[in-house]
Structures are given as structure tokens and as C-alpha cells.
Amino acid sequence: MSRGLLNLMGERWWAPGVLLAALLLGALAGALAGERAALAVLGASAVLGLGLMCARERHLLTRLSAGPEAMAALDIALLILDAEDRLRWCSPAFVRLYPGLEGQLRRGMRYADMARLAVQSGAIDPGPQGLDAWLAERLARHARTGPEGDSWQQQMQDGRVLQVLERRTSSGGWASLRFDVTELVQAQEALRRARDEAHASNEMLTEALEAMPAGFEIWGPDDRLLRANERVRQQYPPTAHLLQPGVSFEAVVRASLASGAIASARGRESEWLGERLAQRGRLGRPFLQDYQGRWISVEERRMPSGRLVTVRQEVTELVEARNALTQARQLAEQRHHLLAHALDALPMGLEIFDPEDRYLYVNRTFRDWHPRVDYNQLIGQTFEQAVRLSQRLGLLPLEARGDEEAWIAERVASHGRRTEPMLQHRPDSMVLLTQEIRTPEGFVVTLRQDVTQQLARERALETSQAQVLAIVQTAGAAILTLDPQGRLRSLNPAAEALWGYPAEELIGQPLDRLLQAEANSELAGLMREHLRGQGSALLGPRRELRARHRDGHAIHIQAAISEVRTAGDHFFVAVVTDISAAKHLEAELRLANERLEQLSRTDALTELANRRRLMEALQELWQHCLRERKPFALLMVDVDHFKRYNDHHGHRAGDAALRAVAEVLRAAARRSTDVVARYGGEEFVLLLDDCDAEGALRRAEEVRAALQARALPHGAAPLGRVSLSIGVYAQVPEAGRRAEDWLSRADAALYRAKAAGRDRVESS
């Protein structure tokens, strides 16, 4: 509609066009028919043009009046400016938006003046920038408006917000529409606040979920992941990368099964997967899942929307504690049964009375001693009732005869109060040693031990002691007794003869008087350790020691020590044998064996290691260097043209030459672990520990040069002297190889040295 009005106003150029056409027609008539005809045509054209102009003017006035009426009827806030930025027309609705402008606007008013009036009227809120700055910015923006138009929101002082649409017209003016969008802006602001609140709530929910000490997941109705916190990813490392929105639960479970993290599913993955999917969200209670050696409590709850919430809490410590508690209970029950069985298996009778002196427990041994008594009936009865039952059954001890009532009264009164054990002789000849102990809780524990045989043994012991004394005094071995401080308590005659001292001179003296310093130190240390409970090496096996006779000569003895502990005594018994003669024979035999061993491992001519010793040393060195990951070298040495030497100089000179070579090689063995051996005939081997190829070559050259420096004459050799060819091999041992490889590789190098002209060193 605004474009129609603007087009209508643009028709103001129609009237000048009609007049111009009349003038052209008159000029054409004059040129064709003369001046009179031209005047006639001009006059007629003018009259016709004036009539058309009048008709066109009426039509324009009608159209111009129709546009504003339509705008007013639609209640549209419209402002029209001409090309000079002056007011052409504005609707009543426009004026109502700016109450301060009512009666102030007039046709032809400049837009800048209108804008200033609007701000000064207080209708527009210029903001913090102030009136002048706002007006300057507004006019600049207005001037920049082009055919494509401009749009902005204008804040009013009364709180309203106007949406302004401004556009250039085809005639060069401006058309501006204004709409009240206050409610729309308020709705948008409310929507923005709602979105901000929703975003803040979502962030708060996210923080809360991440702060949870448990794993948390939300799955959609289609069982695809909607949300999961970081704790879940920490709990399930093999599938952490999969836990992203949209992944299916089945895909996550399959990945866990493929990783082998679920111990209970190994070997039955498909069956386990079916069971897990079938119970998904249906259990209604937490369940335990073993995952990579950890225990996780899983609880799944289905929401009314169909979504599934899962909470996962690691409970490894709780499960382990529960298992430990179960095991502890089982162990306690086992120990209880074991204790009951142990008490029943005791070789002594056991009774327990509660603090009220009622029967609480009696073991099987005591029951077996009194088969006529039903102890199950006695449980809960008092001690006096039990004694009265024994009286009725004739089971009171012999000590009660003569006045049973007095004995019973005294026994009941002193029950649990005696500190000393008492002997009771039963009518069946059994003798019981009875000990009563009252616990801090008031219970009375009675121990009854059958000492019938023990008493008989004690009587027999008295007899045997006399026999033992006679044996000790007549024994051929020396027998000593020592107190815990190592002082002599007794010696038998054999001991007196062994050391040359009378017994009375040694009683109370320390044992070190009889031993040499080294033996005394050893024995004293063993006794100290034994008395401190740190070892029992003192006792048992026979031990060889060096003793000292009264006249000062050394004695080799063999001693076996035992310990005797009784209720009132503690001492040690030593049985000693003189082995001096045996030790002398042993030393001679050992020297002979050592000489034989030396001969079996040494070359007789050169006194070097023989081939047997070489092979042992090679194997030992190979194993050592294999463990330590270090190299060793083998030098294979051969005397050049040695057969010719023997033929020319004789075998005695040949032996001397071999001994000279041995001396050179022995000087080259600088480590204690280096070995020089005669391999056979004129061949020698030098083993060098911790030696690489470079060092081995240098050592071999030193050996060759050392023999060359000796200049041993060789009348049948090209060089005129004794020379050496040496093959070298050095390497770090490796598993899968053999020690013999060093021999074969060095021998191959020796062969090359001989083939190359002898008197040289070659390596493999």
C-alpha cells in the first residue's frame, strides 16, 4: 500500500508532459500548414491538454485521499518522507506512538526536527549516551538507509519496545513503519532467561553427576546411552571410549566380553550376554559384577518414560571385607569344633564350672574315667551335687574315708580356691593329680591328670638313677655336666683321664679351661644363642672341637651336648670322645687325596691344567659369563714345526721348549679366573675372563712376541727360532650355544694362521 501511494505521488510529472506534447503538435502544424494552422492546432491542443490535466488532477486527489484512509483504518504507524527528508504524511497510529508529537507535526517538517521533538518529548529513551549522541547516531543511520531497508528496535521511556522498519522509495523519499513488539520482546527475554536457567540447571546437574562417588548412566527407551558421568568410564577402562551418547547397551557389553574383563563370562560369552540382556532393568535390586578383578554393585531402575537409570558403585573393599568376615566366621566355627575335639582328645580330665559353681562342661577323657555317671544330666547342677552323686556311686577318693561328710564340706568350701595341686587316690587304684584354676571371670577350670604310671615311673627312676650313676662312673667316654653359665658341675673318671685333672680341681671352673680359644668361643656363642632362644645348634649332633690337656698338648675331641630341664634344675650333659688318633689319620688321607686330585687335573710336564681341567674351567667360565652378560676369550696356541724340533734337537730339548712356552702363557694369565692348559702335544689353550675380541688379539700378540723375544733356536724351522701360531675367538655367551663353540672357532682361526705362514695371530 505504501508503494502505491509513493507511485501515485510520483505522477506529478504527468502535467508538464501534456503541455510539452501540445507545443510539439503546434510546431509540427506550423511547419506543414503555415502559421494560422499552427495557431489553431496549438490552441486546440492547449484546450484538450487543460481538460485532461483537470481530469487527471481529480483522479489523483481521489487516490491520495484513499491511501491515508486505508492506513488509518488498518491502524498502521506509517511515516512518509519526501526526497528532501521532509514530512510528506504520517498516520494517526504513528502520532499515538509518540504522544509528545501530537499537534507538533506539520507537512514539510524536516526529519531531524521530528526526531529531536520525539526525544525531547520524553517518549524515547536515548540510553546512557544522552540526547545529542543518540540523535546524531540516529540521523547517520537514517541517511545510510538504502533500497534494501533497515530494521531496529527502539526503547521507549514507558517501557515499550517498537520495531522500526525503514526503506527508501523509488522517488527518493523514505517510508517508515513502526510496530509495538513489547510483548514479543518480553516473551523473547523470558525465553532467554528460561534457556539460561535450563543451561545453568543442566550444568549443575552435570557437575552433580561428575561429583558423585558412583558411576551414573541414563539410557533411552531404545537402550541407547543418553548420558554417563566420568566415573563410569573410570570403572570400565576397556569400554570407556564407547560410552558416548547414542551407543547401544549391547554394543558396550559385547566390547567388555571381547576384552575378557568379565571373569564370570569367560568361556560362555554368548550365554552370559543373553542372560544379561534378559535381566536388563528387571531385577529391581542391586547385583554384583566382577570386572577386571574388582567388584561393582550395579542397580538399574526403569523410569515411567521408559528410560533406564543405572548407578554403579565399586564395592571391592566391601566384598573383600564380607568375604573375610565369612571366612573368619567359618574359621571361628572350625576353631570352635577343633577346640572341642582338642579338649576331648586331651590326655587329662577337664571340667568347667560357671561363676555360680554349676557344671558347664566336661571332656570325653573325664567321662571315660567314670562311665557310670551321666554327665549330660549333671550339666547345670552344682559342684556339691556332683560330689554327692560320686558319694552315692562309691567314687569318692580314699582320702575321704573315715569322715566323708567332713571331707565333702571342706572340698565344697575350697572349690576353686586351692592354689596347690592335690593328689587323689581313687578306689580303682587310679591316682589323679587335681589342679583347680579360677579365671578372672569367675569360672573354675579343673584339670585332672592320671599320674598312676608317673608315680610308678618315679619310683622306678630312683632305682635307675643309681644305675646311671654307676654307668657314668664306669663309662669309657668322658662325661661332663655344665650349668647354664658354662661352669663344670661334675666329671667322670674318663674325663679326668682325658684332660689330666682331678675332678675336685675342675668343679666350679669355666669350661674354657679345658678348650682351646677358638673352640671355647664357638661353644660359648652357641650356648648364649641357645639360652636366649635364638637357636638350637648347641644340642644334638656331635661336634668336633680342639681341647687342651693339662700339660698343654692339643686334643681333638668329639662332643655331643644335651640339655636337662627339671622343675628345680637346669644343666647340660656333654659326652666327649678322644678322636686325636682318628684326626691324624684323616689328615694324612686328606693330603694323599689332594695330591691325587692335583695329579689328575695337572699336566705333568708343564704343571699347567690338563685337558680335563680345561674342559671344566671352560664350562664354568661360559656359565659365569652367560649369567653376567660379559665376553670371554679362548686362545688356541700351537708351537710351529714342533715335530721337526723333536727330530732335530731331541725329545729332551722338546720338553724344555714346551716348558718355556708354558712359562710365557702362564705370565699372560693375569686374572685369578684366567686358565692356562696344555690341550695336547704342542697345543695350548689360554682362557681369558671378561675379555673382548680386541683385548684377546692384543694379549695373543703379546704372547707371540714374548716367545719371539726368548729367541729359542730351532734348527729345522724357516725362521731359525721357535715360533707360535695363535687362533683367537672372543664373544658374549648366548643361550642356545655351547662352550665347545669357543674351541672350534679358535681352532679354525689357528688353522688360518698356519695356512697364512705361521708365527702369527688370527681371529674368528
Automatic annotation (TrEMBL):
PAC domain boundaries: 541-591
Protein name, as recorded: Diguanylate cyclase
GO term, biological process aspect, one: regulation of DNA-templated transcription
Record SMART domains: GGDEF, PAS
Domain PAS: 464-534
Residue span, GGDEF domain: 630-764
InterPro entries: Biofilm_reg_signaling, GGDEF_dom, Nucleotide_cyclase, PAS, PAS-assoc_C, PAS-like_dom_sf, PAS_fold, Rev_trsase/Diguanyl_cyclase
GO-annotated molecular function: catalytic activity
CDD domains listed in its UniProt record: GGDEF, PAS
Source species taxonomy: Bacteria, Pseudomonadati, Pseudomonadota, Betaproteobacteria, Burkholderiales
